[in-house]
Task: structure prediction
Amino acid sequence: MAIEVQAGCPQGQESFTSCQIEGRNTEVFVCFSDQVATYSYGPIGGAPELFLSETIEHVDFEPWSGLGKAISESVTFYNGDYAYDVGGGFDRPFSEEEMLLEQRRFGWVEVTESGERAASLACIPETVSYGFGGGIYDIKVAAGLTWDSYSFTWVSDVVQPTDTSILLEHRPYGTIEYCLSSSEFSLGGVSMGDALDTLGKLGSPEVVEDPNDTGEKIDRMTLVDTHIDIFRDVVIAISTTSPSWGMPSGLRVGLTRGEVIRILGRVPNGYTATSQTFASHVCLEGRPPDVEWTILIEFGQDKRVQSISFVSPSY
Result:
């Protein structure tokens, strides 16, 4: 469905925040309805140079933390390698004297390319329009999402915590480490250690150079955004960037970082709730002989799973 694009909010949407940019003769609008959020940036009063939209359920909205004198919130839109973080806020008064003063408002547009800052724009304070309360937050909650302040992501109510963590605790040499059951090393029904003759329905592999530069030749099946690597007729690696290939626990591409932590039950050793990658290894107990599988979960700049990989460095 086409959206009429002009200065201000599209028809049927209301403003989350807007302002004119210092020294640029440009303005930015972030608007929303109960279905979509939109970003527009361009000359004051003119057609936008850049217009982006995202569903309310998927849009990266960061609510106020509840701390400090300033109240502010932001929305980030993604366009290829670029991210546009737009925020608005104001100082709340804490005394009768402060209530008599003109309220300080502020806003910004932060542009990053592949996670690196590309531009940092400040709003002209007196042009900032920002209304705290309700809005995008309430719509996301009504859609069955909960804000996770530890991972700075939204978590779907569909992703419920498990009774027990799938990251299991073990104590090698007296230290606590977490590992993953060998049954979880499976994507789309294809498991690490599977024999080649059980994969016939997926097609025939082709011989390629080992991507780990071992000098060995391996067989590779390339499917929908997925690689299955085979050595000596056994699956030794699986990687995917497709949300169609899920693990038995429900881990898959596209989940937010908070949803991954909810499924895992905890954050893996050596990582935090805001890390860009998670990794863990197969549990020693109950594993097949000579198995040293590792899982790598990589998050994109939108804080969602970008890829899941299983590797076997011991082959």
Remarks:
- The helical segments are 96-100, 135-142, 257-264.
- The radius of gyration is 24 Å.
